[in-house]
Design goal:
Structural class: mainly alpha
Number of helices: 13
Largest sheet: none
Strand content: under 5%
Mean pLDDT: 90
Helix content: 55-70%
Order of helices and strands: HHHHHHHHHHHHH
Length: about 270
């Protein structure tokens, strides 16, 4: 048994909490999707629908007017998948975050760029959704744009396009890609790596948790603690070891992501 008080102290560390929370999410959701895409080389309509539901972006995709259940139609999901897949090679070839974001914006424009409103696939600019879907095609060196993650970097105002542009510019400045590579290498060196597990998303979780309010973060701690208790001592210790390794090796650099964020003016 893992001491409950010690576990609570461990999970109060953001690097530890971010690591284990992402492992939980990865094992429950992302792993199956990444394995399927690894076999087929592409995202498909069903994955678009499932990922959209898991990541809370389904509301950004237009539904068929005659569908009383408000489901994303196979036709729309297929067209979204095709738009993402067409840039797959480009995503993998991009060496920088801003170049890849430019490709994402091409998809955003395509999905919502029709003059015929009935032919538009998304409501407004589907920026966050496209960055999320594209991650599954090429996860290395990429992270998803999310409102809370952006807020952790001090980015709170502007359109989705403008906030996302600032988000990737900021992550480029603090060398996100280099940090992710080193974290992945450290996991591998310490025998903690797993196929299809990407430390890029630990950074994502760290940012998300940094911007979460205390009540929401406390609930996450409770859920992660219950998860560790349910999976047994051996696996729990392995995940805690992973979290402690990330904390010991990268806590300072993770803190720098938010401590050096640009100051925002407050209107009186």
């Amino acid at each position: 048994m893992i001491d409950s008080c010690q576990l609570r102290r461990d999970l109060n560390s953001l690097p530890v909490l971010a690591t284990i929370r992402y492992w939980w999410w990865w094992a429950s959701h992302d792993l199956a999707y990444l394995m399927r895409i690894g076999q087929t080389g592409a995202i498909d309509a069903q994955l678009v629908k499932s990922i959209a539901k898991d990541y809370g972006i389904a509301r950004g995709i237009r539904k068929e007017e005659n569908d009383p259940d408000g489901e994303i139609s196979p036709r729309r999901a297929t067209r979204i998948a095709e738009a993402v897949n067409r840039r797959g090679r480009g995503f993998r070839a991009c060496e920088g975050l801003t170049d890849r974001f430019t490709l994402c914006l091409e998809i955003v424009t395509e999905l919502n760029g029709s003059h015929d409103e009935s032919d538009r696939l998304t409501h407004n600019d589907f920026v966050s959704g496209v960055t999320k879907l594209s991650w599954f095609i090429a996860p290395q060196g990429w992270t998803m744009f999310d409102r809370l993650a952006a807020e952790a970097l001090g980015i709170k105002s502007g359109t989705a396009r403008k906030k996302a542009a600032k988000f990737y510019e900021r992550l480029t400045k603090v060398e996100f890609i280099g940090l992710a590579k080193e974290m992945n290498a450290a996991l591998d060196h310490n025998g903690l790596a797993a196929e299809h597990f990407h430390a890029e998303r630990i950074v994502d979780q760290y940012l998300w948790l940094s911007a979460s309010n205390p009540v929401a973060r406390s609930l996450v701690i409770d859920k992660v603690g219950a998860f560790l208790d349910a999976i047994g001592s051996e696996q729990s210790r392995r995940l805690l070891k992973m979290g402690e390794m990330i904390e010991g090796g990268f806590e300072g650099r993770l803190q720098n992501l938010i401590s050096e964020r640009p100051k925002t003016s407050r209107k009186k």
